[in-house]
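Please, why this fold?
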Amino acid sequence: MAQTARRRRLMGEINVVPYIDVMLVLLIIFMITAPLLTQGVKVDLPQASADPIDEEFLAKHEPLIVTVDRSGRLYFNMGKSPDQPTTESIIATLVAAVLRRDARTPVLVRADAQVPYGVVVRAMTLLQKAGAEKVGLLTDPPAPPGKQRRTPNAAGQAP
């Protein structure tokens, strides 16, 4: 019995279907996670014309920012979750620790324009008790003449 040798013909094409499947799965993952990474605390800052902080100084010393939202909740830009409300005691502890390492660290309050003045003063007092000698307020620059600031309507969308 003679054995016939079967030759297999080489396949000269690459099957790209699995690569397309992986790419589509990654695309869906990125589409879902991207909005979660950009979430933050929405604050409508008051407008004022003030001198900006020196950029070289900010490059050397990252500022500590306490945010007060419209309902009076406090947020801190450092720690485990800067987009989650935190307590005054946690903020005081973290600010005191950072200021012990670098006393020149700028300390700022970023408060919504609709927040009562007393809530902003309470946040500033908290920071001073934690060791901050100076506490600054963050504002938006005034709108140029002829341009009005866009305000959200009842649905939360800008007109």
Notes: The chain has four helices and four strands.
